[in-house]
Amino acid sequence: MRDTLHLAVALDGLGWHPAAWRLSRAPATAPWSPRWWATLVGEAERAALDLVTLEDSLDLQSTRLDGPDGRIDQVRGRLDALLVAARIAPLTRHIGLVPTTSVTHTEPFHVSTAVATLDHVSGGRAGWRPRVSARRTEARHVGRRDIPPLDPARLDDPATLRLVGDLFAEAAEAVQVVRRLWDSWEDDAEIRDVETGRFVDRDKLHYVDFTGRWFSVKGPSIVPRPPQGQPVVAALAHSSVPYAFAAGHADVVFVTPTDAGHAAAIVTEVRAAEATVGRTDPPLRVLADLVVLLDGTSGAARDRRARLDALAGAEFVSDAAVFAGAPDELADLLAEWHEAGVDGFRLRPAVLPDDLTAITRALVPALRERGLFRAGYPGGTLRDLLGLPRPANRYAAVTA
Fold this sequence. Notes:
With 400 residues, this protein is α/β, with parallel strands linked by helices. Helices cover 38% and strands 16% of the residues.
């Protein structure tokens, strides 16, 4: 048996199924209330989950690959993930908070200060999921570049592949800038000596002097170094290009296997990507994504999935596998995939709060009975929870 697994939940609106709002016990207005997010994250924290992720995008949700679909029967619109995380942080004590932001259309200086602030506000529990924005609709909201429309039938077209490669290269640059800015203040840069009148040691603030293909940033940051030194960076990856991005720039990677054999193959590919990029940081924590519909019996879960699909007008498919069954069955599946090599799971509740409470109140106890999940929080930061050391400051090391 491998070590106990890491467990996260991905929160989005009223759930990951497009018809979730039709069956949810919560009112359709709930996702626009801060109390809703506090309730969900509080539920996850009571079960001692490692972290929650908060979805975000620069365009409205759509069933199309790019552009609005004109539908009025599905939830559209979100609150800003970083602001939601900042609102939740003072209401929680242990759970990691990982908002999503676009790195294609957001300046890394702004992201660095926002996530560093979240780490200070939360006492060292911040993470960040940089997201590549490949859709023309997102680009048109910002107006600084034009991205060609994505054709679902031609995703392997050389021009599309070049675009995706460039977007991930740009994302890599953005993460480099953000990480350098987090290090631009040494840990003891703030003196705060009232008698001498010295608040800061200017020699311990550093210019990052980054110049790349997409960004030129002087630094230093305006926010002191985060409590974790480097907040946890997470990436969602489905193929070789994002695997390489995660291997070079992230701490956690969310992957989307279809079964235990596929999970083992993905872990092998991720480890190969780490070797290719010459990773020197601790190995990526590999968490497998699953959309989950849980009920007392597998039959009841399948019936609920069928009802949701009927309300949506089509069978729900996702980039991640969809599981509909009983908590004990899901616990067995997670154990099998964990044995195949994944370090843990990011579960996407199909309907909120229903499937979240099934995770926290039925699945988690089943995992604990199998010795697969801890009974509580050991204390410390999100990095501590994930078994990641606090990194040394790159500029302090150079100075020394």
